[in-house]
Structure formats: structure tokens, C-alpha cells
Amino acid sequence: xxxxxxxxxxxxxxxxxxxxxxxxxxxxxxxxxxxxxxxxxxxxxxxxxxxxxxxxxxxxxxxxxxxxxxxxxxxxxxxxxxxxxxxxxxxxxxxxxxxxxxxxxxxx
Length: 108
Prior knowledge:
mainly beta
């Protein structure tokens, strides 16, 4: 377990969730049971790379990450996943449109 990658400097919950309820998403990689999925063996595949699912819940973990509950249609599994493990199944425009400044809100 020494190869665990930590995202200690990432704090997603300071922004709104990236994915929305009901959004069609797909797994960016194979997802295996790490021991937290009841009724499946450790290491058993829960979602295949590219498998399509829908966001059915949005929670948080360690006040740092959003965890998206995804119901995968092929396997029938509902899996909690981080944003980096998912991508939208329907391409979206990636635009960062700056918000107009709120007068008097920022110190000069």
C-alpha cells in the first residue's frame, strides 16, 4: 500500500460540484473494490474503463473532495468516485467565464 497517491493540496469543495445529479458520465479507468464495497471480493471489478453511468448522489470526503455516487448501467453497481476518475459522457464546453466584480466586495 505504499503506492497510494494523496491529493493533499486539492480542495474541491470550495467550488460547486463539477458533475450534476443525473449527468451521464463514464469511468476513466477500471474501478476495483478496495474493500469498501459490501458483497464483492477485494479487487473485483466494479466498473470497466469507459462504462457509462449516471450521477445519483453527491457527497463529500474529508471536507476536501466531492464523491459522486454513480450508478453504472452495464454492471448495475453504484460506486462512489472522485472527479478525476470520471468524465462527462456528453462533451461539454470548457469555458471559464469570469464573473463580474461585485462593487465594494473586494478591498483595494
